[in-house]
Design goal:
alpha+beta; 9 strands; 3 helices; 29% strand; three-stranded antiparallel beta sheet; globular; 155 residues
Length: 155
């Protein structure tokens, strides 16, 4: 029951942002731990496993927003500056959305992520053992980082 309410709230939020802002901007990151595993999250309102991230708040830099999102979604801490990979147009969300994509190496998880209203599951995965329902966009970003796919400009 809670799931449909969150989806409805998410739709209202996107509609509000579309009317109140000329463009929406978010951040996502491929976060690797010291063993080379990647951190993924499963949202309550979207199917599949995703890279962590979210929308930027007013008066927040991209790196500040990224650090906030990583704390909120995974209790992750950056141990070195994130590497800017690409800025993508995300037409799947709206005609005005863009995603700044970072690579974060040697992230540290301060404590395991407890499921909440937004994140129902989270964890580190070996690149050859990703969950079956990892999203296509997430798989494309990982392939781009590995050099097996050419970089794209659309999320």
């Amino acid at each position: 029951m809670r799931n449909w309410r969150i989806r409805l709230l998410t739709r209202f939020a996107h509609a509000y942002f579309a009317l109140s802002r000329g463009m929406t901007l978010g951040v996502r990151a491929a976060c690797f731990d010291r063993e080379g595993r990647i951190f993924l999250v499963r949202h309550s309102y979207l199917p599949g496993w995703h890279l962590p991230g979210g929308g930027l708040d007013r008066h927040e830099t991209a790196v500040e927003g990224l650090a906030r999102e990583l704390r909120e979604e995974g209790n992750l801490e950056l141990t070195s500056p994130p590497l800017l990979v690409q800025v993508y147009y995300n037409r799947g969300t709206s005609k005005r959305d863009h995603v700044i994509f970072f690579r974060c190496d040697n992230v540290r998880q301060l404590r395991p992520k407890v499921p909440d209203l937004e994140i129902v599951a989270a964890g580190f995965f070996a690149l050859n053992e990703l969950p079956k329902d990892t999203t296509a966009a997430t798989r494309r970003r990982i392939a781009e980082l590995a050099g097996t796919d050419a970089p794209d400009t659309v999320w």
